[in-house]
Specification:
The chain has three helices and no strands. By secondary structure, the protein is mainly α. The chain has a domain at 45-85. The mean pLDDT is 85.
Length: 92
């Protein structure tokens, strides 16, 4: 969207907030997709894979209510995977 397509005046702040939310939503969606692919590729038991997948589903559900918190949870999950740790359940 070009600047000329944006609302003017008092709505500018709201427009920028919505644009930032949309960008964060897209980032979280892409990172969730990548995290799911990484979990599927892990050489772990079916039970462990199911537990990891449940953790990602919790993040997905959290994104519906609190996108920034879901992004933080997902970042912790991915950091644990990167460090070779098996992420535990995400706290509600």
């Amino acid at each position: 969207m070009s600047r000329s397509d944006q609302p003017s005046g008092d709505d500018d702040a709201e427009w920028f907030e919505e644009a930032a939310d949309a960008e964060l939503y897209q980032l979280v969606a892409l990172r969730l997709k990548d995290a799911h692919a990484r979990v599927r590729a892990l050489d772990v038991s079916d039970a462990e894979r199911a537990a990891l997948t449940r953790s990602l589903l919790i993040v997905t559900e959290a994104a519906k209510r609190d996108l920034p918190e879901a992004a933080r949870r997902l970042a912790r999950f991915v950091a644990d995977l990167d460090a070779g740790r098996r992420p535990g359940p995400t706290a509600g």
